[in-house]
Amino acid sequence: MAADFVARYYRLAGEEVFFLTGTDEHGQKIAQAAEANNVDPKAWCDAMIPRWKQVWGELEISYDDFIRTTEARHTGPVQELVKRLYDQGDIYLDTYRGPYCVACEAFYQAGEITDDLCPVHERPVQWLEEENYFFRLSAYADRLVELYEKHPEFVQPDIRLSEVKRFVKGGLQDLSISRTSFSWGVPIPWDPKHVMYVWIDALQNYTTAAGYLADPQRFARTWPADIHLIGKDILRQHAIIWPAVLMAAGLELPKTVFAHGFLTVGGKKMSKTNLTGISPHALLDTFGSDGYRYHFLREGTFGHDASFSWEAMVARYNADLANDLGNLVSRSLAMTTNYFDAVVPKPGEDTEGEINLRRAAVEAGRRLAEGVRSLDMAGALSGVFEFVRATNHYIDDTTPWALAKQPEQRDRLATVLHTVCEAIRQISLLIRPAMPAASRRIREQLGLDPVDDRPLAEALQPGQSLVGTTIKRGKSIFPRIDPADNGEGTG
Predict the structure, then answer these.
(1) What does pTM read for this prediction?
(2) Exposure winner among 85, 220, 401, 418, fewest CB in 10 A?
(3) Please, are residues 96 and 87 in contact by the beta-carbon 8 Å criterion?
(4) Domain covering 2-260 assigned CATH 3.40.50.620 in the classification
(5) Domain 282-459 belongs to what topology?
(6) pLDDT tens digits, one per residue of 304-341
């Protein structure tokens, strides 16, 4: 959802965007899961993909490409790149001895393991000894440290940058990049009894989806990535292994690797293992896609862990969406319907109140842009909702219901309601990256096309384009949810 929010904002700002997601399908844990279910690993993955895509569809995730690491467009270039590294001496054959976590498909150093448990999953690790091919990761330690120090924006937030620098300065070991104990993976091209370590395979999806080797023109236009959004538990793979591989291959590095935190329940990472996993469908039925998206973008500080509770989600929804935004739209369009026969009136002269509200719209646009560019999702949205609240305060201050009782104040009433409808139009643009469905519904109730395709800076400009538009009031944009609802109802 965070990636979608960012992608939608930049598209709305007029930028060309390539938003990639997909599935990493190789590795031992996939092979074991398939075996436990008596199916072929590829068939196991094939059965999962529609479930992911269904959820992304319901959440309106607007990805431009969905890559599977079992696709030929991926596996072919992966083999070619690894062969290049082997030919130039960056890969050699040796024996791996040490701990390995199947759950996160990660090699660990012995000093990171306590009581034989993975530090992330708290599950027993395997102690392996097998002949593997190794990538000379240690040879790139100095270049990695130089990267972090010259370009601190490469790893964000700052706490993750410090973590990565500390790990690399502590000494890097060469990386085992192949396995022979199972066969579900991309074969090493010069020695097919070995399959690639899943992270050497999977990380390359970013370049293969961008057209590496297969489409040089597209690759030149698309790569390097501006942002990799990842979970903090796979930071080392993305901030150490991935840039080292790109350095070895002579390819440009992504500009930023941003590691977000975990959702936690009762202080522990939300997961099925901890019996705290929550299906998106359980929340979508009550909050809808907009309420779902808004909560997880707005709650907490992006980049850090965020605690989840049903009660907090209901409270946030009712306060921001039902009370502030939903009520604003409902009462404004009701008054326009009642006082001007559902036609947005032509405004009269401005007062300081109208001027200040337009300034609030400009400030909301500025804070949205600033928040997205710094990946401060909550800050971006809080700026927008300050504008929502400013519009509600404007209504309370101007008391259009009182003006409607005074025939001599008809022009003033027209100015107030036009100003409010114009603010709602601007709000529909500002919330679009976070809540695309609500944006469409608001615009439809304003009598506008569901989507304004103009660049955001242009579309936000105030004016009188709404004059004469016929209001088409509909159902409440955000009906209030009963706090007593325990999630089993529909809200």
Answers:
(1) 0.90
(2) 220
(3) no
(4) yes
(5) Isoleucyl-tRNA Synthetase; Domain 1 (1.10.730)
(6) 998 888 999 999 999 999 999 999 999 999 999 999 99
